[in-house]
UniProtKB/TrEMBL annotation:
This is 8-oxo-dGTP diphosphatase. It catalyses: 8-oxo-dGTP + H2O = 8-oxo-dGMP + diphosphate + H(+); 8-oxo-GTP + H2O = 8-oxo-GMP + diphosphate + H(+). It is an enzyme of class 3 (hydrolase). PANTHER family: 8-OXO-DGTP DIPHOSPHATASE, NUDIX HYDROLASE FAMILY PROTEIN. GO terms for biological process: DNA repair; DNA replication. PROSITE patterns: NUDIX, NUDIX_BOX. InterPro entries: Mutator_MutT (IPR003561), MutT-like (IPR047127), Nudix_hydrolase (IPR020476), NUDIX_hydrolase-like_dom_sf (IPR015797), NUDIX_hydrolase_CS (IPR020084), NUDIX_hydrolase_dom (IPR000086). Mg(2+) binds at residues 43, 63. CDD domains: NUDIX_MutT_NudA_like. It comes from Maricaulis virginensis. Belongs to the Nudix hydrolase family. 8-oxo-dGTP binds at residues 29, 40-43. Its EC number is 3.6.1.55.
Length: 138
């Protein structure tokens, strides 16, 4: 692709798990992955044929071993953000109910964070406006 040419648009779906104490789960991208070390909401790329809800259910299972029901996923916000080599479009769901105990299954670090403290973590650039939305609207 030539510099300044069109960038691929990547469709991702992510979820903020919210516990009864009002804390939100974020995960730190492990070494070896692009944007390693930055904190994000659990989720991943939407595979062909998947709905964003199905992506979130699959990724939460793979990454954290938790099982939300699809109807527990509430659309909260979305981002459309230009990165250097791609453009990300990502809905963020909110989930307060799930089965299982969230644990890091893919070598990632996880943290349960109060909404006021999200800004203290080094978030992926696309997620910074989402953290502000959570702080203001939740
Ligand atoms: N999961 C997730 N990805 C995000 C967020 N914000 C953000 O910019 N991204 C970016 O969106 C892309 C999603 O890729 P991913 O690596 O999580 O997805 P995946 O597990 O399906 O991909 P892989 O199997 O290729 O590793 C990455 O470039 C990631 O940095 C977020 O809050 N959650």
């Amino acid at each position: 692709m030539s510099a300044g040419g069109p960038k691929p648009v990547i469709h991702v779906a992510a979820c903020a798990l919210l516990d009864p104490d009002g804390r939100i789960l974020i995960a730190r991208r492990p070494e070896g992955k692009p944007m390693a070390g930055l904190w994000e909401f659990p989720g991943g790329k939407i595979e062909p044929g998947e709905t964003p809800e199905q992506t979130v259910v699959r990724e939460l299972r793979e990454e954290l071993g938790v099982e939300p029901c699809e109807r527990c996923l509430h659309p909260f916000a979305f981002v459309s953000h230009p990165y250097e080599t791609f453009h990300i479009v990502m809905p963020l769901f909110l989930c307060r109910t799930w089965d299982g105990f969230a644990r890091p299954l893919e070598g990632q670090e996880i943290a349960w964070v109060r909404k006021e403290k999200l800004g203290e973590y080094r978030l992926s650039p696309a997620d910074r406006s989402l953290a502000a939305e959570i702080r203001d609207r939740l």
